[in-house]
Amino acid sequence: MNAQAVHVDHDDHDHGPPNSGMRWITTTNHKDIGTLYLLFSLLMFFVGGLMALIIRAELFKPGLQLVNPDFFNQMTTMHALVMIFLAVMPAFVGLANWMIPIMIGAPDMALPRMNNWSFWILPFASVILISTLFVNGGAPAGGWTMYPPLVLQTGASFPMLIFAVHLLGISSIMGSINIIATIMNMRAPGMTYMKMPLFVWTWFITAYLLIATMPVLAGAVTMLLTDKYFGTSFFSAAGGGDPVMFQHIFWFFGHPEVYILILPAFGIVSQIIPTFARKPLFGYSSMVYATASIAFLSFIVWAHHMFTVGLAVEAELFFMFATMLIAVPTGVKVFNWVATMWKGSMTFETPMLFAIGFVVMFTIGGFSGVMLAMTPVDFQYHDTYFVVAHFHYVLVPGAVFAIMAAVYYWLPKWTGHMYNDKLGRIHFWISAVFVNILFFPQHFLGLAGMPRRIPDYSVQFADFNMISSIGAFGFGFSQLLFAYIVISTIRKGKQATDIVWEGAKGLEWTLSSPPPYHSFSVQPVIK
Amino acid sequence: MANTQHATTQHYYVPSSTIWPFIGSVGLALLVLGIIRMLNQQGGTILLFMGIATLIYMLYGWFGEVIRESESRTYTRWEDRSFRIGMSWFIFSEVMFFAAFFGALFYARHLSVPWLGGAGEEANTHEWLWNSFSAVWPTNGPANVGGSFEAMPAWGLPTLNTIILLTSGVTVTWAHHSLKIGNRQNLIYGLAMTVALGFLFVGLQMIEYSHAYHEMNLTLKSGIYGSTFYLLTGFHGMHVTLGAIMLTVILVRSMKGHFTASNHFGFEAAAWYWHFVDVVWLILFVFVYWL
Lengths: 527, 291
Description:
The complex is a heterodimer of chains A (527) and B (291). Chain A has 16 helices and two strands. With 527 residues, chain A is mostly helical. Chain A has a single domain (32-510), classed as Cytochrome c oxidase-like, subunit I domain (Cytochrome C Oxidase, Chain A, Up-down Bundle), CATH 1.20.210.10. In chain A, strands 1-2 form a two-stranded antiparallel ribbon. Chain A is globular, with a radius of gyration of 23 Å. With 291 residues, chain B is an all-alpha fold. Chain B folds into two domains: 1-75, Helix Hairpins (Orthogonal Bundle), CATH 1.10.287.70; 78-290, Cytochrome c oxidase, subunit III, four-helix bundle (Four Helix Bundle (Hemerythrin (Met), subunit A), Up-down Bundle), CATH 1.20.120.80. Chain B has helices at 20-39, 45-71, 77-116, 124-129, 157-180, 184-215, 223-255, 265-290. Chains A and B meet through helix 1, helix 4, helix 5, helix 6 and helix 7 of A and helix 1, helix 3 and helix 7 of B.
């Protein structure tokens, strides 16, 4: 685990980036492509965030005031699709691109041309997806889960949705194949699997989840397409099919997808906490096994999203217990992070604050997940704001906080500039406060019975909704500070040292800040 | 802890820059925009063909570059291993794509159709909507969607197609063996036979579809049977076509003198893909045609 090597002299054919306007279009460099992914993700984070603010503005008061219900539904659908496929996933892939080669001592990704293709499909797919807002009939409004028969009523944007999903799937599959080939084939001599940094391990496992499930999503949306345009009966009972079958196929993809959105976050937090606790990660190998167990379990729990569709009792029992089982490896992780901090010489720079915020608030989301896992309890919670609160806790102060932690942790390495840590800490605290104002009241709303994906609500829900909307605007505008910090650090700042953080361990810190355009052209030896 | 020694002076080949992936993205975007416009009945044919042309141009240029690099011995065993890993996991992703459609088939045959016929505890659909429906496979559902049809029997063209694909698996292995012992003549014969058998398979499949549409009233609209039948066999047929095109490229390269007994990953990748479509067909033959 203590992958350390001294600063290896970089060989002299270390060219800088080409000075051409085509650099970003034709690049095969993992750092360039990582940067493209991360900047794209940042942009989409604000696009998706704007949609969320439209939702919260409408829900500020009971009654319909700002948007019509159909547009509201378009916003809930598009907010989810944009945040999942265009913001969070590309951010993790961008981090993988930047960090995996320099964490394992590789000269680049294993398949550099395909790496470029994985990225450049994304802008085209996102233009197709987002432009649905402007076509006849508006954007898809049946929810990101695309359940038939409702989704089949979508207008001209329907095939755009389907093909955008196809393109995003192609991009993800190529990205994952590249990550797997890189990790299997490009590790520095001596970097055995059980010495790999945890971020590399979690991405390795995530990449398998992606290749196993994105094609299944492609199959599911293809069936939707043929049902709508070519008269097939996959999801029509009249023809012998079943609309519930879509839900099974979709969630066979969808549940592993949930872990695709969180496993790399686990990896990031497992890198950051040891640095600022100045102790090696507690239970490294148990972390690896726990990640693998979570990934395995993710394939056999999908129907917990469908407890209320009328499953057989045996199925409900099986999926309930299998789901609860996930709490075991997840608990192992949380306890390991806490044990890493135990008696550590801790300091609380921005990345550490985000990492600790992750551990605390992700765990809140984890607990509400265990509540939802209980079938009879889920009968009450299903499709309420409790579910919304649950998955936003794991995705916003979970996945998104981990991405921000990663950016604050590695930004000085990427840019060679140190940001203003005080501003970073302010960003953390206002984000952490507002995110709780935003999502915590939604638990109460859900328990009281407020349904999700509805633009209007009964007056007894008014107070908590108003609080939640205030939190939403506070959280949303706080992120402008994040964008400011990132952009100003890219442009200028105090020169960062190579190691950046006092307690940092790992190959990436042996490189200069910023690292040379081609690093580890000669691989270091890991002992 | 720290070590200053260099383990290897070996360099991994990292191409400097490339325009092909971007052209590929433009091609994919044009292609799907064409299909989108066609489905929305707003034309789109021109966009579709522009997309296809761009993709063909991209494949020609990209693979051309890789082939030139391969023939000039740019790649060592190290890069070769990346290609092997990449191709293996690509094929795995294809397996998962077919798994979705096989999943739909098994779900329909073992769950949704029996439920519509009254099986299970909560068979209200049967009782209230379609109480005369009896669950037998093949079916186009309780509403007789698409009208009465005949199911495709296994023992005719499909059996012949099974024999053809299995034989092509043998011929491609023979070609591989010939390549390994340096017999280029037999390599070319073996590949040519494989390609011919592949396209013969696709041709027979088209005849089968035509027969199904015109004489058996078995169409995409024939309920869940027609849906699963055509999507499974159709996607398989598309993959056979793709595999046959890949092998054609390999055949042309073999005739040009590419590949050596020890360095021929391009051949192997196409052969792996071919075995993959072969195995999918066997599963298809058993569960779609036979049982």
